[in-house]
UniProtKB/TrEMBL annotation, chain A:
<protein>
    <submittedName>
        <fullName>Bicarbonate transport ATP-binding protein CmpD</fullName>
        <ecNumber>3.6.3.-</ecNumber>
    </submittedName>
</protein>
<keyword id="KW-0067">ATP-binding</keyword>
<keyword id="KW-0378">Hydrolase</keyword>
<dbReference type="InterPro" id="IPR027417">
    <property type="entry name" value="P-loop_NTPase"/>
</dbReference>
<dbReference type="GO" id="GO:0016787">
    <property type="term" value="F:hydrolase activity"/>
</dbReference>
<feature type="domain" description="ABC transporter">
    <location>
        <begin position="12"/>
        <end position="247"/>
    </location>
</feature>
<dbReference type="InterPro" id="IPR003439">
    <property type="entry name" value="ABC_transporter-like_ATP-bd"/>
</dbReference>
<dbReference type="InterPro" id="IPR017871">
    <property type="entry name" value="ABC_transporter-like_CS"/>
</dbReference>
<keyword id="KW-0547">Nucleotide-binding</keyword>
TrEMBL record, chain B:
<keyword id="KW-1003">Cell membrane</keyword>
<keyword id="KW-0472">Membrane</keyword>
<keyword id="KW-1133">Transmembrane helix</keyword>
<dbReference type="InterPro" id="IPR035906">
    <property type="entry name" value="MetI-like_sf"/>
</dbReference>
<feature type="transmembrane region" description="Helical">
    <location>
        <begin position="123"/>
        <end position="142"/>
    </location>
</feature>
<feature type="transmembrane region" description="Helical">
    <location>
        <begin position="61"/>
        <end position="83"/>
    </location>
</feature>
<feature type="domain" description="ABC transmembrane type-1">
    <location>
        <begin position="57"/>
        <end position="237"/>
    </location>
</feature>
<protein>
    <submittedName>
        <fullName>Aliphatic sulfonates transport permease protein SsuC</fullName>
    </submittedName>
</protein>
<dbReference type="InterPro" id="IPR000515">
    <property type="entry name" value="MetI-like"/>
</dbReference>
Length: 260, 258
């Protein structure tokens, strides 16, 4: 019984998952991703690493429930996923296209709670907490256009955390940030993850970012019919040191995949 | 020459220049062809003193306002539905793009036959002039809502109805606003046409009827009234947009540089 209980901690199970945008089901079908098998444990920080166009965003969007599957199984806690849900929050790459510019920082963070009709006082308490957690105190009444790129991504993070999702799906969220801001955001994400115990699936094409963040790193092959070819365990302690020999050797190993 | 760049200086200079050219034209061609500023003012005083001008402005304004408001109220939900529901859009779009090229004036006779010679036909004409512009703008707005916004709302637990209300409508607001504002212009054009042909009051009637007495100064008065009516309602609406709809990103063409 105890093993079952630990398994049902928001475990994501993916079996022979496929996606194709063509109508035909037999013969020479063009698959974006084909026969992906993956199990992600609850509370894990999993990184999907691969070059552009390998289908990692497609896989993430399928877990989010935005994109329907063409075959295989995709379950969270043994329940098949066929639509977006409050349990799976998404942090998008472009904050400008996903934040609501007509709402203030606080109103953006409270959006999900308002949809759920949470009473105002409680909403305020929760938004205060997460705005504080992402370090946006004092910016509550600002509109997104008054914020920098990094701050906008903080708003996105606070906005999804306020809904208390089990799983955080992050699609290259720091890809558009400058190097210094990115580094700060990576550190803070690790802290937030350790504080909130969410399951995180983080998509990136940056090997260093993958190594800084992930407990496990799944390497995706170049499409079409792409797949997770290898999974690396990364047990280096946090905060991770880019200059350490262990980091360097792991970096080289992973880079080897993309050089052939 | 810094003083020329001051706004009140340049604006007054412009007005003085315009009045000068106007007066010059009047002096060259005679008051029957181009009534000068003074003659126009006198004609205007005449029309104000017996109360007709204010009454005409009032009735034209009333027609535009009622038709424009009703037309917009009808058009916004229609635009939202057409934009949101693919199947409806596939059928509606060619139809919309066909009918929007038919100017309101072309419908005057038909509207008189359908709605009678009273106020209804004029208001219906303004509604027609408003409707398609607002529908098309709303539709464009709905189509350009970023997918990420809808997706993020959905994964935060918003229902389809909540997405419409809390994401699509606010994201579309600047488009709706622009559509309604443009529609005001076509509404004035339509009402003047209608009043010329089928009315015995209103600014359009004044302009058209003045030809019988060869009162070109009255025509000038009518033109000025139209310009000012349009100008002030547009400014008022733009001001309202900037004030009330600021957070939705409604910007005005007349917005000053900061």
């Amino acid at each position: 019984m105890s093993t079952l209980a630990s398994q049902s901690q928001h475990t994501i199970q993916i079996e022979k998952l496929r996606k194709s945008y063509s109508e035909q089901t037999a013969g020479d079908v063009h698959y974006i991703i084909k026969d992906v098998n993956l199990v992600i444990k609850g509370g894990e920080f999993f990184v999907l690493l691969g070059p552009s166009g390998c289908g990692k965003s497609t896989l993430l969007n399928m877990i989010a429930g935005f994109v329907s599957k063409s075959g295989g199984n995709l379950k969270v806690d043994n329940v098949e996923i066929d639509r977006p849900g409050r349990d799976r929050a998404v942090v998008f790459q472009q904050a400008d296209s996903s934040l609501f510019p007509w709402l203030t920082v606080r109103e953006n963070v409270e959006f999900g709670l308002r949809m759920k009709k949470t009473p105002k006082a409680e909403r305020r308490k929760i938004s205060d907490r997460y705005i504080g957690l992402v370090g946006l105190n004092g910016h509550e009444e600002k509109f997104p256009k008054e914020l920098s790129g990094g701050m906008k991504q903080r708003v996105q993070l606070a906005r999804v955390l306020a809904n208390d999702p089990a799983i955080l799906l992050m699609d290259e969220p720091f890809g558009a940030l400058d190097a210094m801001t990115r580094r700060t955001m990576q550190k803070e994400l690790v802290n937030i993850w350790r504080e909130t115990h969410k399951t995180v699936i983080f998509v990136t094409h940056d090997i260093q970012e993958a190594l800084l963040l992930g407990e496990r790193i799944g390497i995706m092959s170049v499409g079409p019919s792409s797949n997770i070819t290898d999974i690396y365990d990364n047990a280096l302690p946090f905060p991770r040191d880019v200059a350490s020999p262990e980091f360097y050797s792991l970096y080289n190993q992973i880079q080897g995949h993309f050089e052939e | 020459m810094k003083w020329v760049e001051k706004k009140w200086v340049s604006v007054s200079l412009l007005w003085i220049a315009a009045l000068g050219i106007w007066q010059l034209g009047a002096a060259i061609y005679g008051p029957d062809v181009i009534p000068g500023p003074w003659a126009t003012l006198k004609g205007g005083r005449e029309l104000v003193s017996d109360g007709t001008l204010m009454q005409y402005i009032g009735i034209s304004f009333y027609r535009v306002l009622v038709g424009w408001v009703l037309g917009s109220l009808l058009a916004v939900p229609v635009g939202l539905i057409i934009g949101k529901v693919n199947i409806i859009r596939i059928f509606a779009e060619p139809f919309l793009n066909f009918i929007r090229f038919i100017p309101p004036i072309a419908f005057i006779t038909l509207f008189l036959v359908w709605f009678g010679i009273g106020e209804q036909s004029k208001i219906a004409l303004i509604m027609y002039a408003t409707f398609f512009i607002v529908v098309l703008n709303t539709l464009t707005g709905v189509m350009s809502v970023e997918e990420d916004k809808i997706r993020s709302a959905r994964s935060m637990g918003a229902s389809e109805w909540q997405i419409l209300l809390h994401v699509i409508v606010p994201a579309t607001t600047p488009y709706i606003f622009t559509g309604i504002r443009l529609a005001m212009g076509t509404s004035y054009m339509a009402i003047i046409g209608a009043e010329m042909i089928a009315s015995n009051e209103g600014v359009g009637y004044l302009i058209w009827n003045s030809r019988l007495f060869f009162r070109t100064d009255w025509i000038f008065v009518g033109l000025f009234c139209l310009g000012f009516m349009g100008f002030f309602t547009d400014r008022l609406f733009g001001w309202f947009g900037r004030r009330v709809l600021y957070r939705y990103g409604v910007v005005s063409v007349a917005a000053r540089k900061r």
